[in-house]
Amino acid sequence: MDLFDDLKPIKQEIINDVYLLQGFALGASERLLLIALQAVIINAPLCNMMTKMGFAMSAAMTNCGDLGWISDRKGYRYDGHNPLTNQPWPDMPASFLQLATSAAAECGYVNFVPDACLINQYIVGASMGLHQDKNEQDFSQPIVSVSLGIPATFQFGGLKRSDKTLKIPVNHGDVVVWGGEARLKFHAVMPLKANHHKALGDYRYNLTFRKAG
Ligand code: SIN
Ligand code: FE2
User: Fold this and answer.
1) HEC per residue, 46-97
2) CA 126 / ligand 2 centre spacing (Å)
3) Do residues 171 and 154 make contact, with C-beta atoms less than 8 angstroms apart?
4) Angstrom distance (rounded) from CA 109 to CA 142
5) Number of other CB atoms surrounding residue 168 within 10 Å
6) CA torsion sign, 94 to 95 to 101 to 105?
7) Which end of the chain has fewer CB within 10 Å, C or N?
8) What is the pLDDT of residues 42-84, one digit of tens each?
9) What homologous superfamily does CATH list for 10-210?
10) Could you say which ligand is closest to the alpha carbon of residue 146?
């Protein structure tokens, strides 16, 4: 038995083309990742964007990378500028890019180079309704979703909104990667239960990496 077997991240294919990499974002680079997250949020503050219907989203959001995902009364889209500041989004930190490309490669997506990273911050009770990620140009590219802070339950469904969903518990450091036949499947985040994380307080953060343009 390899002495370090226990330290290898556990990769599970939960559904066809949906992988859970438990603890993949932990370890030596975790500190760099959290410092980089803090720097991005200082440069591009989190805000609760409006949906087309005029409701504020319960997760607060910001972005880094060439493109940022935004929502307002005109709908959902990607934009190179932060609507709050009219500045370009902060550069994607090297630690973010490295994590996203290595997680994708671990699941067989070897050419993934994200140009967008959406950062969601959830307070207790916040959630994300069932939706598909479909504002991107190239659906052959996967989605890499990194969970940080307090735990959540991610739900993964099918290609129809009414398809039944599977619950996937996600903890600090877990990475979910989906692509291929799962790329356009509906997914959601259930309302967060009260909890506390030693580094990130009473919040959950999610980094969603995408090749948008
Ligand atoms: C999303 O699907 O946009 C967010 C997923 C998450 O926060 O885990
Ligand atoms: Fe999504």
Assistant:
1) CECCECCCCCECCCEEEEECCEEEEEECCEEEEECECCCCCCECCCCCHHHH
2) 15
3) no
4) 7
5) 19
6) positive
7) N
8) 999 999 999 988 999 999 999 999 999 999 999 999 999 999 9
9) Alpha-ketoglutarate-dependent dioxygenase AlkB-like (2.60.120.590)
10) 1
Cβ pair 59, 120 in contact under 8 A? yes
Element counts in the chain: helices (H) and strands (E): 2, 13
Q: What is the average pLDDT across 103-115? A: 97
Q: How remote is the CA of residue 147 from the centroid of ligand 1, in Å?
A: 9
Q: Is 120 in the pocket of ligand 1 (CB under 6 A)?
A: yes
SS3 208: strand
Q: Predicted confidence band at 27 (pLDDT cuts at 50, 70, 90)?
A: confident
Residue 88, token pair as written in the block:
């370009």
- The residue ranges of every structural domain in the chain are 10-210
